[in-house]
């Protein structure tokens, strides 16, 4: 693979590449041959060629040379009218369509790469340095965008109170960065004083997730449980966080549906909106409060997270169950355990007033049920 990569680089590094090198490259990496030819005949720039190569990626068990070659043909037709960044994004989208099963693995890696370092400098000041996965990162961006948007050409408010607030932000003597820094400290103070027994939800900074109808189709299996199922299972769907080029997996879509609900927007083949449906919400604020009292926090085994750190999980498939919001079918899970449940395909079932955790077969072949008692303090 490394030798092939060197051949690719040699073939596309210059429009005047050695014909012999190009011929050798075509023989060794045939699916990428059109890239080398396009560069040598001047119809594709070197930068665009590199964007295509990095965007489409390499052959693996899921994506064959034939599939990549077909995608490359379509991409080269579009590339002539696109800039380098657009070429890369289109190539990445085509790769994701070919390898939807790999989206979850890349999503997990991005989540595993997260960090936040807070340290004191020699002069007593404190510096923050961090990295967030796309989902959490977009939430952070949206939070600070809602605070500083009047300084950066945000929307114009018609409401008098909001317009007055925007004017105050615009006239604020602090810099935009200072406003953001002060807002972070204030948010931490508010969080520190928040009622730990309350389940937060409802109004929050807006992070929109765009999915196709395929991703919302009910009745699909949560995960393959046998080798035969793996071979016959339909390819997973995926979605995208608005404004972020990185796709999100079906598991993330399912988890977000638990906590936020949906609004259907129907578009035609040209991308024009032809219908906007009503909001399909899940648990109300009152229901979340009731779950906080009932569950006492995250119900996962040995987890001590309070209700304030928890999210509402719908134990039934929301769309498969017509989106019913029976309080008995909701349970509190902290964000890490909510992630774990969806990404590794654990399930929660209810028998009467009791809740049980069912592990996936790769964790427990017998799928022995694990009791999930309430964390509520004994009255």
TrEMBL record:
It comes from the Bacteria. Pfam families: DUF222 (PF02720). Residues 216-246 are annotated as: Disordered. Residues 33-295 form the DUF222 domain. This is DUF222 domain-containing protein. It comes from Cryobacterium cryoconiti. The lineage of its organism: Bacteria, Bacillati, Actinomycetota, Actinomycetes, Micrococcales.
